[in-house]
Amino acid sequence: MNPKLSNFDFDLPENLIAQKPTQRRGQSRLLVVDREKKSLIHDKFSNLKNHLKNHPLMVFNDTRVIPAILQAHMESTSRQVEILLTRQLEPDVWEAMIKGLGRLKPGAKFKFENSDLKAQFVRRKDNRAHISFSSQNELSTFINQSGRMPLPPYIHRPLDTDRQTLEVDRKRYQTVFARNSGAIAAPTAGLHFTQAQLKVLRESFADTAHLTLHVGPGTFIPIREEEFTLHKMQEEYFQIFPANWNKIAQAKKKGQAILAVGTTTTRVLETQGFEKTIQTSASGWTNCFIYPGWEFRMADHLLTNFHLPKSTLFLLVCAFMGEKLAKKAYSEAIKEKYRFFSYGDAMLIL
Predict the structure, then answer these.
(1) Number of domains in the chain
(2) CA angle (155, 165, 348) in 5-degree steps
(3) Exposed site from 27, 95, 116, 139, fewest CB < 10 Å?
(4) Domain presence at residue 152
(5) How far is CA 63 from the centre of its chain?
(6) What's the pTM?
(7) 48: domain range?
(8) What is the mean pLDDT of the chain?
(9) Inside any domain, residue 156
(10) Residues 22 and 83 in one domain
């Protein structure tokens, strides 16, 4: 393996970056890649069941995205400030990303329109702000009523975006099986599934299990080292309840193939042993960085979207299917005008 980031670059026409979801959930296209045959098949996502072999165990990330972008005003100057909440540190204290953080002084106060909610900048740590809110209940209400979905930077939503588009984002940048709140990015491979499709899959084509990885801002942080093995992933919190852990452990024991739905699911699966069953939840933090040369122990198949060039996600895909085949698949997807990134089309790697 040559650990040079420039080897994992490719030209992507900007018009292939999906800015909106398909009209209805589940209408995406599907590129099916068979690693053994080195073959590519073009299909629709609704036909996913036709490509599943030997009744696999599909593992989903059931994290729920928080509408974590808040618009505020500085109390002293009325300057508008955008706050992206990244994680809760204490009941009323959150870590956040703020543009112009370097200009803020501890004690600076924020106010929020049409709300009694107030906040105060406490300190700066590792390029993140620690913000204390006046009330967690008021914050929850404001998030639910006025928070915006934290869409990736390549999906453009100006401040004057119409309410209908923002409501579509709230619904569609969330999986139908999202359960545990805490993510600031969606596990995008899961966005394609409808409840009806999941029901059909569970009844006849696959078993299912869930885990939770709260996707953080690290997923969008670019690799800045040409020798990409020096890149450090940011830690993200995961949790797996015993019933799901034991399903995965038993599947592995009996040789049932495991289909990881998304790169976030893959990263959790690959960091856990699953050698034996458990009776209490497994949880912790992971900064697993998967790149070519990784030996996969848990994931046998992978369902994923199409990712940014030179990204940690593209490196994971190259590790899973081989660099040459991955580049062939991406080249074919670009040629056939597949839609890329979070609101884009899907790829099933067998």
Answers:
(1) 2
(2) 50
(3) 116
(4) no
(5) 9
(6) 0.94
(7) 5-65+173-349
(8) 95
(9) no
(10) no
